[in-house]
Amino acid sequence: MRGVERYWGVYYLIYVVSVAVFLGLQWASLNRDNYIYLLAAIFGAAVGIALLSGIFVEGVGRMVLLIPAVVKRLRDQGREEGLQQGLEGQRNLQQQWMAWYERHQAAQRDGQPFTEPPPAGPPSRNGK
Question: Rounded to whole angstroms, what are the CA distances from 6 to 9, 14, 87, 110?
Fold first, then answer.
């Protein structure tokens, strides 16, 4: 019922215009024998057009209102997934550095030369 309250003026205007158009088109064929049936058909068609336009306006209106919400939700979901991937990559890099550092320390303790290059990526937290 919310849509009817919001757009009742639009629906009523479409109904009145539809009645006027159908009456204008059928005015010449009105006579005493069939005018009740013809008027009923005209008003019925106008009601149908008003209802179909109401359904269309509400459907398009809801889509227009829902599209930004869906886009925001998908953007937030992508941002969260990117953040998780970034944290996972950072954790993996930190584990590589820790393993390299432990091998380096073990080689120094044992007095053996250590020629393994460090893993790719900065070891410091500040990027220095």
Answer: 8, 15, 47, 82
Q: DSSP labels for 50-80? A: HHHHHHHHHHHHHHHHHHHHHHHHHHHHHHH
In a domain, 123, yes or no: no
The tokens describing 49, both together, are: 């057009």
Is the residue at 127 inside a domain?
no
| Distance of alpha carbon 45 from the chain centroid | 35
In a domain, 60, yes or no: yes
Asked, for residue 126, whether it belongs to a domain, the answer is no
Q: Which residue has the tokens 């109401």?
A: 54
Domain containing 58 equals: 2-110
* CA-closest candidate to residue 42, choices 23, 27, 28: 23
pLDDT per residue as tens, the chain (128 positions): 454 566 667 777 777 777 777 777 766 666 666 667 777 777 777 777 777 777 787 777 777 777 888 888 888 888 888 778 877 878 888 888 889 889 989 998 888 888 888 887 655 555 44
